[in-house]
Amino acid sequence: MNILAEQITKLIFKSLDISGEEEEMDQWWVDPSTALQLNSYPSCPDPSRALGLAPHTDTSLITILHQSSTTINGGGLQVFNEGVGWVPVVPVSGALVVNVGDLLHILSNGRFINVLHRVFVNQNLQRLSMAYFYSPPIGFKVAPLAKLVNSSGQVPRYRSVTLREFISIKAKSLDKALSFIEN
Ligand SMILES: O=C(O)CCC(=O)C(=O)O
Ligand SMILES: [Fe+2]
Asked: Fe2OG dioxygenase domain: from which residue to which, for each copy (predicted)?
């Protein structure tokens, strides 16, 4: 998983015209912060009165998700699409879902949007998912990438923050966390 996450991150940097080979990033690839979370959503007699997981964004850089194929009668993962509303992420056999997390939103100065998502439960079936959260080292300073901001004449929307600090801001302010580091 680590190798896959590293490759996806390097592809994202390439798409942003950021090589990812700056010296300060060497440590990133050696010692990333990672966590594997196993989620189980039991069936629920009345799904309209329960949520599997409340709407949230992930604190990670990216999250790689495997979901079981429970979509019958609704239920499962949904992402919020501005102007459209909640959209189901239908499981595709053999495919993984990659979510953009808060740290990629910060690094890319908002170019990659941290996806708001939630999980609905199913009336008859249990649903399982596995989420692999991939982030830079816990003490690594994350800020809008200078190369990106300078080349496009943008102003950095966020101040620099370590994952350690951002986790503690988020524990207190949840979905308002980004506004606490806004410039
Ligand atoms: O179960 C899912 O599909 C999503 C899980 C999730 O969003 C999370 O663990 O942060
Ligand atoms: Fe999540």
From this structure: 31-136
